Amino acid sequence: MKSNREFATLAVHAGEAPCPATGALDTPIYQSTTFVAADSDEMSAVYAGEKFGYMYTRYGNPTVRALEEKLAALEGGEAALAFASGMAGISSAIMGYVKAGDHVVATRMLYGAAYNFLNKKLPRMGAEVTFVPTARVDDLERAIRPNTRVIYFETPSNPTLEVVDIAALAKMAKARGIPTIMDNTFASPALQQPLALGVTVAVHSATKYLCGHGDAMGGIVAGPKDFISELVHEVIRDYGGVISPFNAWLILRGIRTLHLRMPAHCANAQRIAEFLAAHPRIERVHYPGLASHPGHEVARRQMRAFGAMISFEAKGGYEAGKRVMDRVQLFARAASLGDTRSLIVHSASTSHRAVPRAERLAMGITDGLVRLSVGVEAAEDLLADLDQALT
Ligand SMILES: Cc1ncc(COP(=O)(O)O)c(C=O)c1O
Fold first, then answer.
1. Of 33, 111, 191, 240, which cross-links 187 as Cys (Cβ 3.0–4.6 Å)?
2. ∠ CA 51-81-60 to the nearest 5 degrees?
3. What CATH number corresponds to the domain at position 357?
């Protein structure tokens, strides 16, 4: 599919075509681990990469391939690779660049497992990581060393919704010849296109907005052809974090309505953020769509809309935050995000329970912080639910 088509057209059509053998309009689920060759010469040519073909699903699968082509088109990348989960994609993308003796610069405001991978797993492999506690490009630049191999960041960040200036960071990194990897999960390509802003590689938890319905895990890495090909040959085949064809098919199906879901998610979130900002029981709201957010102007420049993740601090600290989570009736008390259904988590008592308090506070996750993933229900019902939970 030509990549100059509009985003909505690409979301519906890219990577997919009617089955030439049967005419099936929808992409078939190729639920097969292996693929038959006509003879030994053909199999040998496929193994050697001299002929395009499928041989074993860990090496490639037609349903998975459709998802990869759709994501490459939506992210505007030369190529994309699908993984079993967001973390499989994120760890593989980092390992695609980093080896023993290398150094990584990362923002501190990261999804917890990505932080753990960088903080605990990479050092075991002999690489060092410097975490920068702000979203400022000059602070990230100061952390660069001669052996810095990659800069890793996410924007807006989970769960404090900090915003990094993508174009400014990508420009600084490019000038120093350092590749950038950005987690685009919170925005999705419908709202934000990191590769067009100069980022080298975009990563996703496809489990979230791309899938959109909370029923399949997946991960995506999109970027330059050479890098993706290296991941295919050097990482995914040996580490083995491949997505199942059925999950790839569910995510493909979800993406066809991404451009319709995201505006509905964002419109609900804007109303909820404004309602919370004016609520007497709320101390602070973190949402890039509020003019009071420190990253508002940057977000306005780099995002089509401000997303549907909100976090807020309830007055009364730990107990107040926990109470809001306990009292909602429509929001589901559940981890994850990007579902059509609205979800709520009080971070200190759940997702960040095991993080020492001082460390948690340094990450901006206060005792009363509550994170919302705003769904596509009627805004009035979501507002009424939060209002009754707060009062
Ligand atoms: C921003 C972000 N990136 C990555 C991940 C990891 O994705 P997965 O759970 O699909 O491995 C998550 C999961 O919550 C996330 O919120």
1. 191
2. 40
3. 3.90.1150.10
- Please indicate whether residue 87, judged by its CB atom, sits closer than 6 Å to ligand 1: yes
Domain presence at residue 124: yes
Query: Is the CB–ligand 1 distance for residue 205 below 6 Å?
Result: yes
Number of domains composing the chain: 2
For residue 128, give the CATH number of its domain.
Answer: 3.40.640.10
Centre of ligand 1 to C-alpha 114, Å, is: 8
| Closest ligand 1 atom, residue 208 Cα | 10
- Could you tell me the CA-to-CA distances from 365 to 315, 349, 359 in Å, in that order? 14, 11, 9
Same domain (yes/no): 249, 266: no
Contact 232, 205 (CB under 8 A): no
Q: Which residues are catalytic?
A: 58, 111, 183, 208
Q: How far, CA to CA in Å, does 150 sit from each of 120, 153, 173, 386? A: 17, 10, 9, 41
Each residue's pLDDT, cut to its tens digit, for the chain (391 residues) gives 656 799 999 999 999 999 999 999 999 999 999 999 999 999 999 988 899 999 999 999 999 999 999 999 999 999 999 999 999 999 999 999 999 999 999 999 999 999 999 999 999 999 999 999 999 999 999 999 999 999 999 999 999 999 999 999 999 999 999 999 999 999 999 999 999 999 999 999 999 999 999 999 999 999 999 999 999 988 998 999 999 999 999 999 999 999 999 999 999 999 999 999 999 999 999 999 999 999 999 999 999 999 999 999 999 999 999 999 999 999 999 999 999 999 999 999 998 888 899 989 988 999 999 999 999 999 999 999 999 999 9
Is the same domain home to 276 and 233? Answer: no
**Domain span including residue 320:** 258-390
Answer whether 154 contacts ligand 1 (Cβ < 6 A): yes
Ligand 1 geometric centre to CA of 35 (Å): 32
Distance 205 CA to ligand 1 centre (A): 5
Tell which atom from ligand 1 comes closest to the C-alpha of 157: 1
Boundary (domain end) residue, out of 255, 272, 292? 255
Q: How far apart are CA 44 and CA 149, in angstroms?
A: 36
Q: Radius of gyration of the chain from Cα atoms?
A: 21
